[in-house]
Each structure stands twice: as C-alpha cells, then as structure tokens.
Design goal:
2 domains, two-stranded antiparallel sheet, about 0% strand
C-alpha cells in the first residue's frame, strides 16, 4: 500500500517541501536539536508523529533528501494505517476481500494526492480515518492490545479531532483488552485539549460559512469527490449544467448516502449503527473543518460558474470522503453477507469504488506544484554558505515560507 501511495505522487512533487514540514517541523528540529521539538506546540496543537518522523529523517538521511524522505515516510505511515484498518475492521467486515477494499481507501481515496498524501503536515488525517476502526476493535491478545494502545496514544497526540470518535470506546466497555487501546487514545486526546486551551490558535476573523454552504459543499466535494479526484470536473459539470446538473447532483448524493445507510434498516445489533458512525463522522468532520477554518472560498452555496470550474479538493475533503467510502464498502459487505442478490449488489458497489480509484489514481492538481525543488535549493544554499558561512534561508511552498538551515548542517554530508 505504501508503494502505491508513493506512486500517486509525481517525482517533482515528492522533491518539494510543503508548508509546516519545512517552516515548522524541520526548522524547529534544526534549531532545537534532536527530540526537543517533539512536544513543541504549533497553532494550539501537538504534532508528535510528524515531529518524530522529522527527527528520524534528519538523523538518517542527508538534508538534501529531506523532501523525498518526508514524502516516502509519510506514505509508509499511510501503508501502516492501511494494514491497521484491515486488522481492526475484521469484527465488522468478515470478507477478506472487502476488508482489503476498506484498507485500500487509506491510500487510494481519489482526492488524497492533492494535498494530504506524502507530507508530514497532513499525515494526521490518516489517523482520524483509523480512529473508528481502532476504537471498535476487540483485541485478541494482550500484546496486540498494548501495541494498538501505543498507536492510539500517538494518534491522539497528533490529531485532536479523534475526540469525535472517542465515545465509541463505550461500545467495548465490557471488553477489558479494549481498555488498553481506548484509555491511551483518550489520554492523547485529553493532552491535546489541554494544550489547545493553554495555547489557543490564532483567531481567524474570516466570515464563517453558513449551514447551506456546508451542506452544498459536502455534496460537491466529500460525497462526489469520494468517486472523482479531479473535482474541477465536478464543478465544471455543475457550472455547465445549471439547475439540471444541480438536481442530478442532489439525486446522486442522496442515492450514495441511502446506500450507505441500508444496514441501519436491515442489520441487527451494533452492526446497524456502524453506517451512522461513518456517515455521521463524515459530515461532522467536514462541517468542523470548514467552520473552524473559515475561508471566502467556502461559500459553496454562492459560487458562480467561474468559481465552480476552479473547484479543488483541500485537505479538509480527504477524511470525510474516506469515511463515506468506508460506509459504502461496509454496506456492500453487509449485502454480501446476506447472499443472493446481495452479492451482486456488493460486487457492483465495490466495482464502482474500484473504478473511481483507478480513474483518480493520478490527479491533475497538487497543492505543492510550482514550488522550488528542494535538492536543487540545497545545492544553491551550499554555494551561499561558501561565500558567507553561518546560516541560509531555503524557500519552500507556500512561497513566503522558508527553512533556516545552518551552514554546518549543509556541509556535514
């Protein structure tokens, strides 16, 4: 899975340092030294796993390779998360083939390469996708529970939004080994909450989107974007089709969500509530993202034809889409278990998902595109150090962000 993730990112994109990977994680590591920056707070949150990975990248590889190393390490994490989803979903999805389809969402969800896949700054989104499967799983052995507890702790210390799924721990409250997983996970989230209370984020004074913007944007991006990674095509179709396209959009979105929720009516026990967890989690994570990070571009209910044609998938689209795809596969697994026509329906649903994965394996827009090639920038920086030893600023993307690298680090390897 990790290799597939790497292949989804073109070589020139892998050689670009993105946002916090450079200005915060690498810069802090070079300035503060090994391990000291691991619990450094940025914008109200801890980012423990990205900072640990940054430490490892700097220790193990030359500074020239940091961009590529961060991309590969991030994809490796996605591969590990995919394996964990496969294991942790076995109580809910019995078919190994369908569990493989579920796990593949971790790296093959259509919109992932645009901004999320292959950089430290966004590796935390895969932990949010893992959260419901991790907390609903009943470990078979104490050793396995301890290992998953460590995973849960690291996830909680990296992704504060795991708070949304922590209540799922109550489902397995009578299963003692599950406590070994849920308690560390909840502890990590609690530390995050205390951190953000003591170190609040910089206030965002942009006008927040309304409920209609959130609902319309959800249909256009997380729902349709779950099947089409080139979301500009979705926007262009809506712009060209007018009210007819809008009506078709509503129908398609309604059919997808209705299919996801079929087990609520036909399953028994807790299995019937899993689709509500996934679809509800999809909508909540989307709503929270656009509400807490307001942007004029989020006024989805009022976008004109030009703005619709320029529609793009940000990092906030990824997890809502992944959770929705998870609900589709879960519903397909439920249909498969019922036998008869259910197996045909399951095959059709998974086939649609597979086609969307193949069609969107490579996307045409990347948030990092156009940035400076890191290895070349490091070479230029060495020339500057030869003339003026000390430190040098190396640009990343966004274009006004940079990393301050000491010349002795540049010249050490």
């Amino acid at each position: 899975m990790a290799l597939l993730a790497v292949q989804r990112i073109p070589a020139e994109i892998r050689n670009i340092v993105w946002a916090e990977d450079g200005r915060n994680f690498l810069d802090d590591r070079l300035r503060m030294g090994a391990w000291r920056s691991v619990f450094e707070v940025y914008e109200g949150y801890l980012h423990v796993v990205p900072r640990l990975l940054t430490d490892l990248a700097v220790w193990a590889f030359p500074i020239d390779a940091f961009a590529v190393t961060s991309a590969v390490f991030s994809c490796a994490v996605s591969g590990v998360v995919a394996a964990l989803v496969y294991v942790c979903s076995r109580d809910l999805v019995r078919s190994r083939l369908l569990r493989t389809a579920l796990a593949s969402i971790t790296v093959l969800a259509p919109t992932l390469p645009v901004e999320v896949l292959g950089n430290f700054a966004n590796v935390h989104w895969s932990f949010l996708w893992l959260a419901p499967w991790l907390l609903l799983y009943r470990p078979r052995t104490t050793g396995g529970a301890v290992a998953l507890g460590i995973v849960g702790l690291l996830c909680g210390l990296t992704e504060i939004q795991m708070l949304f799924f922590v209540p799922l721990a109550l489902v397995n409250v009578r299963h003692r080994r599950s406590w070994i997983v849920s308690i560390p996970t909840a502890a990590g989230v609690l530390v995050q909450l205390m951190t953000t209370l003591l170190n609040p984020r910089t206030p965002n004074l942009t006008v927040r989107p309304g409920l209609l913007d959130i609902v319309v944007g959800y249909g256009e991006l997380p729902v349709l974007g779950a099947f089409e990674g080139h979301v500009s095509r979705i926007g262009q179709a809506l712009a060209d089709g007018g009210w007819g396209a809008a009506a078709a959009n509503v129908i398609i979105v309604s059919v997808i969500i209705a299919f996801c929720l079929v087990p609520v009516l036909t399953a028994t026990g807790f299995a019937r509530w899993v689709p509500l967890v996934l679809v509800g989690g999809s909508f909540v994570t989307w709503s929270a993202a656009v509400w807490l990070n307001p942007n004029p571009l989020w006024q989805y209910a009022d976008l004109d034809a030009v703005a619709l044609g320029a529609l793009t998938a940000t990092r906030y689209v990824a997890v809502p889409s992944m959770l929705l795809l998870g609900a589709v596969v879960y519903s397909a697994a439920h249909a498969y278990d019922r036998g008869g026509r259910g197996r045909f329906i399951a095959g059709l649903a998974v086939g649609v998902v597979a086609v969307s994965f193949i069609g969107s394996f490579h996307v045409d827009r990347f948030s990092r595109e156009g940035g400076p090639q890191w290895s070349e920038s490091v070479g230029d920086a060495r020339s500057s150090c030869a003339a003026d030893p000390g430190s040098v600023e190396i640009g990343t993307i966004p274009s006004h962000w940079f990393v301050t690298v000491p010349c002795d680090v540049l010249n050490s390897r």
